[in-house]
TrEMBL record:
Organism: uncultured Sulfurovum sp
Record-linked Pfam families: GATase_6 (PF13522), SIS (PF01380)
Reaction catalyzed: D-fructose 6-phosphate + L-glutamine = D-glucosamine 6-phosphate + L-glutamate
EC number of the protein: 2.6.1.16
Protein name (Swiss-Prot/TrEMBL): Glutamine--fructose-6-phosphate aminotransferase [isomerizing]
GO biological process: carbohydrate metabolic process; fructose 6-phosphate metabolic process; protein N-linked glycosylation; UDP-N-acetylglucosamine metabolic process
Entry keyword set: Aminotransferase, Cytoplasm, Glutamine amidotransferase, Repeat, Transferase
Amino acid sequence: MCGIVGYLGKNEKKEILLDGLQELEYRGYDSAGIAVIENKQLKNFKAVGRLKNLRDKTKEYESKGFGVSIGHTRWATHGKPTELNAHPHMGAYSFVVHNGIIENYQELKKELQADGVKFLSQTDTETIVHLFEKNHNLNNNPWESFKKTISKLEGAYATLLITEADEETIYFAKNGSPMLIGFNDSDVYFASSDTPIIGKATEVYYLEDGEYGYAQNGKIHLFDKNGEKTFSKQALATDKAMAQKDGYRFFMEKEIYEQSTVMNDTMMGRLLDDRIEFEELDKDLFDNIVNIKICACGTSYHSALAASYLFERIAKTPCQVEIASEFRYKEPLLRDDTLFVTISQSGETADTLEALKMAKKAGLKSLSICNVDNSSIVRESDAAVLTRAGIEKGVASTKAFATQTMVLWMLAIYVAQAKETIDNELLSQELDAMRHTPKALLVADELHPKMTRLSKRYLHGHGFFFIGRDLFFPLALEGALKLKEISYLHAEGYPSGEMKHGPIALADAELFTVALMPKSLHYEKIKSNVEELCARDATVLAISPEPFDLADDFVKTTYDSHPMLEFFEMMVVTQLLALEISVRLGNDVDMPRNLAKSVTVE
C-alpha cells in the first residue's frame, strides 16, 4: 500500500516525481501529492483520486534549478481519501511522506495537541512532521530533531522529510516498509521499489530496517543504532518492458496470457531431466525437518493450501497452512523440527513478515517464496526461492499465483527426493507433467471469446459458488477471490462435498455455481455433488474435459492425465471469467476499488 518517491538534484523535479508515482500507482490510488523546495521556496500540490488528477493540477507548474522534492500515492489506512488526508503532510515549514502505520500516533498526537499543535488531517503520518517541528523549535538543529523524532516512532514506516530549515537536504528513515536509494552522478533518488527510478538512476542501495540518515550535496549519510555506517551500491536493472501492456487492454489480461512464458522462467534450471534442483537452497535446509508450516495471505494462502496436499501426498511430510493475519495472535506452538515457509508476491506483506519474525525468534528455519528479490521477507528469511514472475501490475494476482504454485509443487518433489519418499516412476510422471504445464497455461484461440460470451449470463443473481475437491478446493477459493476482487460480486469457494452440509440451502436459479470437475481426481464424487445442485435448480457452469449434460454452460478443457495440468488449465478459465465479467460491469480491472497491490500494513 502507498508509494513514495523522492529526488534531490538539478533536473526538473515535477516530472521525475509524477513519472515515479505513475510506476507506483498500483500500490495506492486514493490520492497523490508532491512537495518541492527550490530556491528556498516550498511548493506543494495534492489531488484526490488517480494520478492524472494531480497531473492536471500541476500542468502549469515547472521547477528549475537545484532542489529537493518528495511525492506519494496513497491507499487510505487512517482517514478517508481526501485532499487533507493526502500526502505530503505539512507543518509550519516542513513536509513529510510516509508508508506504513505509526502505532503510537494517538499518544503522540495528544501530546502535540496539548502543546497547541492543530492537526489538519485524520492520518497517523501528520504526527511525524509536527513532532519534527516541535523538536526543531526547541534546538534549532534539523538533523538532531529528525533523529529524535524517529526515536519516538513505533510501528512500520518508510518516510522522507524536507524542511525550509534545511532546504537542500532530504531526511529519510526506514523500518518495516520498503524504501531504496538510487544514484546517478550527483542526483539522488528515493522510491518504494525499483521501477520509478529505472532509466534515471544507475545504482541502488536497499535500505534495511532501522536505517536512517540524510541526503545532501549528492551524498548519503547513513546511520543505524550503532552510528554512521558505510554501504555498498549495486547496479540497477534497466528493463521496464514487462511493466507495459504490450497491446492488451489491461495489465491483468496481459499477465494471464504471459503465464505460459513466465512458467518456463520459473522452472528454468530447476526442472532437470531426472530431478528437481534448487541451487539457491543449501542441502541441509531440510535436515531434521519433520513438519512444514506455511504462512501466507490472500492469493498466496490459496497456493499454500494447494501445496499442503502435495507435501503430504508426495513428500509424505505433514504440512499445515496458516493465515498470516491470524497466526500472530493464536499463540502458536512452534517446534524447531518445523520448516517455516512464507509466501508473498511483493515480499512486503506486513502480516506475513511479522509471522516470519515470530518463527525466527522461536528458532525455526525459514524459507520464503517470493517474486521480488531484496524484499523484506526475502532478506529476513534463511533461504528464498524466487518465482520469477516478472512485474505484476494488476492488483488481482494471476501469474504470481501460478508461479507460486509451481515453485511449491517443485519444492514438494525436492523434499520427496531428499527424504526418498518418491519412486522413479512417480518422479518421472511428475517431471513430465511439469514440462507440459506451459502448454496447459496457453489461452486457446477459442477460449477467450467463449468466456466473453458466457460472461453476459453471470452479471446478476445473488452470488457464486466455486466448488472443487482436493487440490481443486484451493483453486475454487482462488477463483472466487478473483471474481470478488474485480467484479465486486459475492462469491465463495467451497469443497464440493461440503455443499450438502449447509450451503446448498442457497441453491436456486439465481445461484451461479462454477464447478471444477477434473477427470484425473475424484471425478465421480464431484459429479455427484454438482448433480445435487442441479436438482435444486442452481445455474451451473461446468469446467471439465468430460461433457456434463446437466450443466447450463460448459467449458471443455484439454488436459486430463495429471491433476496439476488440469489445475493450471482450469485456473486460466476462472481468471478469464472474472476478467470478462468485470469488463462487462464497467469496472477498473487493474485497480479495483478499496484494494492495493502490496499490503504493507497489518
